[in-house]
Amino acid sequence: MTTNPSQNGPTLQSAAADLGYTPSDLRRHTNWWGAFVIGLAGTILVTGIAPVMVTALGAASIPPTVIITLSGWVLCLILAELAAMMPDRAGGSPSYAYPAYKDRWPRAAKHINGVTAWAYCWFPVAPLNMILASYYIANRFGLNTDAAHSFTAIHTPIAYWTLGISIVGILIFFIPAYLGIRFGAIFATVLGLLSMIPLTFIAIAWIFNPAVANFGELAGFHHLDGSSFFSGMNGYGWLSVYIAYGFLLSWNVIAM
Known about the structure:
Blueprint: E1 2-3, H1 9-19, E2 28-29, H2 32-57, H3 62-85, H4 94-101, H5 106-119, H6 122-140, E3 150-153, E4 156-159, H7 160-179, H8 181-204, H9 238-254
Antiparallel strand pairs: 1-2, 3-4
């Protein structure tokens, strides 16, 4: 599907005039498959933090995951409405923050836009997922990540291999973003197949050997140690624990 915004000039111009911004004549060069695989990236991103929650919280991680995912679904509906109102803007929620607040709070609008841009998923999630990937890569290739090969930043030890792999990985993912939506769709298709095929197999493999599944472990959504859903962890109350993990998961869900 290739559309030219100039064909709908009056519509875009009137929308831009009403909201007070300069239209950029954004061109659209994709089809339903491109939209599907790029949207699928959000779902795959969630799998980056979900295993961390499961291994730390056990079945207790399921309710927060469901609630936050549903909130992400509502966010998608809101973004769809904003996109229909401002079809000439691209870039997710940061693209709409300034026009939305500039009339009501003109002095605060630019700061709201800045905070929204910083908080948008790609800023915190890209390093987060690459750090997780770096641990896997370092483990598979026997790379040394002990304290002797690390440095400490803000009281947190960071292995040199972790830093290097993360930087290289982020730069590689910048390539499809720079080359545009067509190449990005191809890139997303390849990564989607490489990710979803093994993940789907893991999700359904128990069907071929039902004896390994113990659905009793889901009852009550207990923690790994058998404590209740409303039990604290590591000196923190249950609400603080779920908010902390939910905060990380919500960043991933925003990508959907």
